Structures are given as C-alpha cells and as structure tokens.
Amino acid sequence: MSPNRMHRAAARLAVPLLAAAALAATPARAAYPERPITMIVPFAAGGPTDVVARIVAEHMSRTLGQQVVIENVAGAGGTTGILRASQAAPDGYTIMMGHMGTHGAAPAVYPDLKYDPRTDFAPIGLAAGTPIVVVARKDFPAKDFKEFVAKVKADSEKLNEAHAGVGSVSFTTCSLFNSLLGAKPTRVVYRGTGPALNDLVAGQVDYMCDQIVNLVPQIQAGTIKAYAVALPERSPALPDVPTTKEGGLPEFQVTAWNAVFAPKGTPPAVVKRLSQALLASLDDAATRKRLLDLGGDLSNTAARTPEGLQKLVESEVARWNKVLKATGAAK
Predict the structure, then answer these.
(1) If you classify domain 131-229 with CATH, what class do you get?
(2) What value does the mean pLDDT take over residues 163-190?
(3) Rounded Cα–Cα distance for residues 187 and 159 (Å)
(4) pLDDT of amino acid 175
(5) Whole-angstrom Cα distance, residue 238 to residue 99?
C-alpha cells in the first residue's frame, strides 16, 4: 500500500475512534430526579389538603428515590401558595397539591387572580376525592341534621361559621350550604382548615363545612359533632353519620378533590415520571388504606392521568363559576 493510501486509511479509522473517545469523556445526563422535590401545600399544616399531600408524598418519595418535601404556604384561600408554585422553575423540583378551591372555584372568587387553573399548569394527576361533612362544636344544640338546619335558618345571624379562607373548599361549599338555607352567619376566616378546626374543637365557632379527610379523627373522638355527609350514600369512614339527603337537604351534595400539578412548561418526561410515581402511590395497598380510612374517595380513576385531570379542572372552573355567582359568593 502506498504511503498516501495508508495515511488516508488511518485518518478514516481515527474519526470514529475520536468520536467514541469524546462521547465517553462527556458526562451522561443524570436521570430525574437528582435532588429532593418540594411539594407546596397552599394551606397550613394539619388541614385536609396537607394530610392527603403527606400521605401521597411519602410513597412518591420511595418511588422517585428522592424525598418529596412538604412546604406549607398559606393565604388567600390557597391561591398564595399556588401562585408561588406556578412561578417556580418548570424543572420538576417544585410541584404542588392543588384542590377544588385553588383550581376550580378561585377564578369566580378572585377576579384579579394571577393565574388561570386551565392554562398555567402541567397537570400530574388526581390524588383523592374528599366528601364534604357538615360539622359543629360538640355542644351545638341540635340532635340531628334536620334540627341543625332549622337552627341555622332561624338564628344564622347569631352564629359563627368557620372557613379556611375565601376560595377554599370550606368557603365554597358552605357558601352553597348557606345559600340553600337562606342563612347569613358571621363568616370567620382562617389561614387553613387546621386553625379553623382547632377553634371549632375549642367551641370558639359554631359550625363549618369541610373535607372528610381531616375530620374523621375529631368526629370519632367526639370533640366535634358531625351532622351530615354531603353524599347520596353514607361514607364507609363514617357509617353512623347520615347523608344530607337523609336529613332533608338532597340539594347539598358535593365532593371536593386534591390533585398534583407542576408549573407550566415542565418537560413531558418529567411530568410522566411524576405521574407514574403518583399512580404507584395510589395503587399501593397501605397508602390506599390510609386515604380510605380517612374517608377519601379513590373512585375517579379517569382523572389520575394528566389528560383526565385537565378535563376535571376545566369542568370544575365552569361549575363553580356558575354556582358561586348564583349564591352571591363570587366577586
């Protein structure tokens, strides 16, 4: 072989060898997640959204191989925390546990809302539905739901109703409840269900409407009185508590929900990884039992996917806009 031909052959051989060497020298991109993930809960610790978030996050941490850390950011019916989360870097390291209030009712309650639940998030999936229970201080003078309704109708201006902030689930659902009764109680606002429930237990307020998840332990302990579950059938978690239909108010039937979202622009691969981790938690027998024992509803499997959750959000925004305008609670 001539020297020129030998040089050309050596050059051709060197090109792939150099490329392979360069590839080997380039560090591989680490798989997501590389570090802990923050899940913003837009209410104080101890509330129903916080409880659901902590149960789900515990199993997601094991699946993802990184800790999912809860950060409570309360205020403005949950919209303060959700706004902060929506403005985070869309890299999968900040996610949020939204709910019916922040991603359904908020646009009707806050006309200057700085985010749109339908367009400013990457949906991950539904965590749990949470039926609503009408509860009161343990010494409220009504033996059953029918007497309670009559008392609220007759003396509402003398009563105090607690809620977790304008736009929260407790606010929106009790807005509907009060409207159906023509009641006008003093509405006492708190920075989350936890503080509101503490004052209900202490007898500082008279009643509230809220998610079953955080109420079951207090109801079972007898520190508050449960009058009715806003469902067509009784909840397995509170089999002795009648439904609003049984109590003569079938119009008041409502189930709240909690779901995981990421900021808009989060890469599809990251959304998929988070969705898979959420689904794994909801398929885990121990996690399901914890949610079901607290009264959680896991029947809406369609909304567990990002696409299904997007449809749920769009329908809830339309629904609560109509309901709250009709009740006068919308601004």
Answers:
(1) alpha beta
(2) 93
(3) 9
(4) 94
(5) 22
